Amino acid sequence: MSLLDAGDRSPWPWQEAAWQRLCRQRRQQSLAHAYLFCGDSGAGSAGFLHEFANLLLCEKPLDQRACRQCRSCRAGGAEHHPDLLRVMPEEGKKDIGIDQIRELTEFLSRSGFSGLARVAIVPQAERLTLAAANALLKTLEEPADRTFLLLAAISPGRLLPTIRSRCQILPLPGPDPASAADWLRQQAGQQQAHLSEKALGELLEACGNRPLEALAALRSGKQEGLAATRRLLHGLLSGETGILKVAADAGKIGEATVFEQLSIISTIVIRGLIEDAWQNPENRSLAEALPGKDRTARLAALLEFHRQVTEARKLLAGPGNPNPQLLLESVLLCWQRQGAEQAA
Ligand SMILES: [Zn+2]
Questions:
Q1: Does 40 lie in the same domain as 164?
Q2: Distance 291 CA to ligand 1 centre (A)
Q3: What strand order describes the sheet that includes 118-122?
């Protein structure tokens, strides 16, 4: 499933250079048999691969885009197109195994449904096992006519050098923070017009500057969740809020979500303290509410809190089946104690 709904289509503005280059090659009939796109996963590389596959399979492209009208485009979109194979780690597995690559090889050797092309995409190519990568090499060495292999990797250095050398490598970078914020503002539209530049900047920061993730977070109300969590942390430090009340409220939202928000907020405040730069003044005020005479002491307190949150999240996701409410209470107690120390 794509991260966003069908109205949001790649190529995104920051992918335009790579898209134009591919379109030029297509016009000049000089497309490579295999591509390796290198870039940030959160900036929409999987969507880019799909959209390019759509274009390769379209019977009547319009303005260098798939037409969405022809028989091929109507065949359910690229996700279900009989001439398109998407290879991902199977459910419950981390890696792409050799059997999946054998299937890919077999798929590319068959004659196609549209007669236009056969396209296989591997959005997380660094997940190939060594055996799978070696099997893929054979396909790369003996490409069948009108077949295309589109690989994407965040860390292409983890791929076999022999795979890299047989692909045309195209960078697929994410946007710089300023362009990402502009884009997010445009996408947020009227409904979110009340959000300040700072709030959007903070959301982007919370999502590791991955704009698509930030947009999805905006649509799911994550921004409000972060603000609520920050208020909660303030309340605990000042003694206005009690742990039991917080833990009970957290139970309604879900402890995993609250832990995620605690992790994001503490990461943002840690970064703010290190760089002494703040997108959102509310984060600075949270940092200043922490005990300690200076920045170093506050940083130490926050790093310890972040370590505890990370540890608790690991436990929660692990097989041990811990009590989530108790975990949350113990983490919040550590936070509250810092406020108490300050008051003492
Ligand atoms: Zn079409």
A1: yes
A2: 62
A3: 84-86, 118-122, 147-153, 34-39, 168-172
Write down the pLDDT at residue 87. Answer: 95
Please write the tens of the pLDDT for every residue from 230-239.
Answer: 888 888 888 8
Number of Cβ atoms within 10 Å of the Cβ of 288? 10
Question: Are 126 and 159 within 8 A, CB to CB?
Answer: yes
Distance 60 CA to ligand 1 centre (A): 5
Note whether residue 64 is domain-resident: yes
How far, in Å, from the CA of 63 to the mean position of ligand 1?
Answer: 11
Q: From the CA of 5, how far away is ligand 1's center (Å)?
A: 19
Q: Is 0.85 surpassed by the pTM of this model?
A: no
Distance 282 CA to ligand 1 centre (A): 49
Q: Residue 343: what pLDDT?
A: 53
Please report the beta strands in 155-313, taking only residues with DSSP state E, as ranges in sequence order.
168-172
Residue with tokens 């597995």: 93
Ligand 1 centroid – CA 147 distance (Å): 18
Q: Is residue 3 part of a domain?
A: no
What's the gap in Å between 47 CA and the centre of ligand 1? Answer: 17
Provide the pLDDT for residue 3.
39
Specify the number of domains making up the chain: 3
3-state DSSP assignment of residue 295: helix
Please give the pLDDT value at position 100: 97
Range of the domain at 139: 13-172
**Residue 264 CB-half CA count within 13 A:** 24
Residues 114 and 145 in one domain: yes
Q: Which residues of the chain have pLDDT under 70?
A: 1-8, 41-42, 76-79, 190-194, 339-344
Which of 205, 256, 265 has its CA nearest to residue 229?
Answer: 265
Same domain, 23 and 151: yes
- Asked if 160 and 19 sit in the same domain, the reply is yes
CATH of the domain at 87: 3.40.50.300
Concatenating the DSSP letter of every residue in 219-255 gives HTTHHHHHHHHHHHHHHHHHTSS-HHHHHHHHHHH-H
